[in-house]
Amino acid sequence: MGPMGPSSMAGRSDSTGGMAGTGMGMGMGMEVRNEFDYLTRMIPHHDEAIVAAKVLQQGTQRQEMRTFAASIIETQAAEVRQMKTWLAAWYPGRDTRVTYNPMMRDLTRLGGSALDRAFLEDMIPHHMMAVMMSQQFLVANLADHREVVPFARNIRDTQQNEIQTMARWLRDWFGATHGG
Questions:
Q1: Going by C-beta distance under 8 Å and a sequence separation of 6 or more, which residues neighbour residue 164?
Q2: Where are the alpha helices (H) located in the chain, listed in sequence order?
Q3: What's the pLDDT at 86?
Q4: Residue 143 pLDDT class (50, 70, 90 cuts)
Q5: Whole-angstrom distance, CA of residue 128 vs CA of residue 105
């Protein structure tokens, strides 16, 4: 395990005890092979971010973090709805369930600055994975439907900008980098 130790996402029955919290939980398992893979793998990834953002929203004392959490919840919930709509329309009858190894530790027992720091430390590599998946999807030209191209670009660009913001907060508030 990485320096943050073992962790899992509370209430997730599909956790297989990957290297959650280290940014390595999904590793090669998140290789995007086609559009269907991209969409089905991004949904649980977004779901994990939404759950973590809801915990953050309830436990942080920083208004910046509450606002940031609200933005993640709103943006990624809308993206999940869009991906599910596309999957139902384009791939009817296909099983969209995937094995997902959580990347983030259980944040539910944390509050205040400890929660803020853990969230930032875990969400930076979590966002990096979504950026990498989106970039891989785009560079490999895996889209079967043109609508997914600007969608993936938006995920990549939005989350890259959020990584920069989170890294700045981690440095400014805690004197730390996302590496630890």
A1: none
A2: 35-59, 63-90, 112-139, 148-174
A3: 98
A4: very high
A5: 16
Which amino acid would we find at residue 8?
S
Whether the CB-CB separation of 65 and 116 falls below 8 Å is answered with yes
Report how far apart, in Å, the C-alpha atoms of 36 and of each of 95, 98, 120, 134 are.
10, 11, 30, 13
Full-model pTM:
0.82
* pLDDT digit string, tens, across residues 75-123: 999 999 999 999 999 999 999 999 989 999 999 999 999 999 999 999 9
Looking at residue 142, the DSSP 8-state letter turns out to be -
- CB < 8 Å & 24+ apart, contacts of 132-141: 132/30, 133/30, 133/32, 133/38, 133/41, 133/42, 133/45, 134/38, 134/159, 136/31, 136/32, 137/32, 137/35, 137/38, 140/32
By three-state DSSP, how is residue 53 classified? helix
148-174 and 63-90 helices cross at what angle (nearest 10)?
160
- 48 contacts 25 by C-beta, under 8 angstroms: no
38 near 133, Cβ under 8 Å? yes
Question: Is there a contact between 140 and 32 (Cβ–Cβ < 8 Å)?
Answer: yes
Q: How far apart are CA 1 and CA 7, in angstroms?
A: 9
Give the separation between CA 25 and CA 29, rounded to whole angstroms.
Answer: 9
Q: Per the structure block, which two tokens stand in for 103? A: 């990347």
Q: Which residues contact 6 (CB under 8 A, 6 or more apart)?
A: 17, 20, 21
